[in-house]
Amino acid sequence: MAVLLLRLAGPLQAWGVKSRFTVRATELAPSKSGILGMLAAAVGRRRTDPIEDLLTLRFGVRKDQPGTVVRDFHTAHRLDGSKSMPLSERYYLSDAVFLAGIEAENAVIERLDHAVRHPSFPLYLGRRSCPPSFPVSLGLRDSSLLEALTSEPWLASKWYRRRHREGREIEVLLDKDAVPEGEHTNDVRGSRDVPLSFDPRHREYSFRDIERHMVRVKDEALQEGSATRSGQGEDHHDPMAELDVVPGRDSEVGLDMGLGDASGETGPDHHNPMAELSEEN
Fold first, then answer.
1. I want to staple 236 with a disulfide (CB 3.0 to 4.6 A). Which of 82, 110, 263, 270 is the partner?
2. pTM of whole model > 0.90?
3. pLDDT 10s digits, 45-56
C-alpha cells in the first residue's frame, strides 16, 4: 500500500455535500466526493463514465489552515438581458490550506500521481471557479494513511504559522476503515459524500464513517530551503500548464486508470494548471 499526498491551497475552495437549489454551502474540509471527482478529471473520466474502481480508495484530510467561510450573493442574467436567473448564495472557504491523502495499492497510486501531475481535465478545488494556487501532487509516501498525514510538515502560510506558533495540534479526518487497529479514537461521524455516480441525470451518493484525530505536526517551513515545499516563495503557478498534451492519452487512460509512464519526474516549478490538459480535449 502507498499514499498519494495532495496539497489543496487556493484563494477560494468549496466542498459542497448538502447544497440544494439557491443555497450552495461548503463543508469545512475537502469531501471525499470532491477529491474523487478531481481524480476522475485527472485520469480523463467524463461525468457519465463509471467510477466504481475509485470507490476503493481510502481518503483522509488534514486541516493545516482552516480558512474563513465567505458568502457570495450571486446574480446572473441571460446575455441578451431578457431574463434574470435565480438569485443564489454561494459559500466558499477563503485562504484555506489542506493536506489530503489517498491510500491504495502501489500501482494504482503511482498512476494517479502521474495523472494529477498531467491531468486530462483542469483540476479545481471543489468548484470550477476555484483553481489551485500551487501544484496539487506532493508525491508518494510509503506508509499508512494516518502516518502520512501525521508526519508531513505543516503546509500553512507563513503568516498563519507565526500567529499559531504556540500550538500546532491539527485536526485530521479520515475514513474509519483506514485507521490501523489500536489507533482508533471512537470520535466518529457519518457523511453522505461517497459518489456512486457523477452523471448529471442521476447523481447518487452513499455514506461513510469519518474518524477524527488530533495530531501534532512538524514546522519545517521556516527552515532555509523549505519555502517551496510549504507553498511559500516565488509563485510561477499556472493551473492549466500541466494539462496532458501526450497524443493518444484518452485511449491510454481507459476506465481502469492505465496511465502509461508513472515516473512522476518533475523539474523547476513554473506550474500552469491549464498546460496539462489533453489537446484532444
1. 270
2. no
3. 999 999 999 999
